[in-house]
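ok trying again, last paste got cut off:
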Amino acid sequence: MANMQITHDSLIGDVIRNVPGGEDVIRKHFGTGCFTCPGMNMESISFGAMMHGLEPEPIVRELRQLEAV
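nice, full thing came through this time. structure:
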């Protein structure tokens, strides 16, 4: 998925698969559980952030910076 528009509603699995460096950002904020969880294909960054007690905006911002490189 070239030029993926990353939003709070972006699916974690899509980010992991399609954003170079996205895997590292997800691991940094959510740990390694996302990589084996079937929910990664249905759960958004916003949902993941809520489940981990985090605000989604800093995660989205960090992922968007990857695309700018």
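cool. The first helix runs from residue 12 to 18. The helical segments are 12-18, 22-30, 45-51, 56-68.
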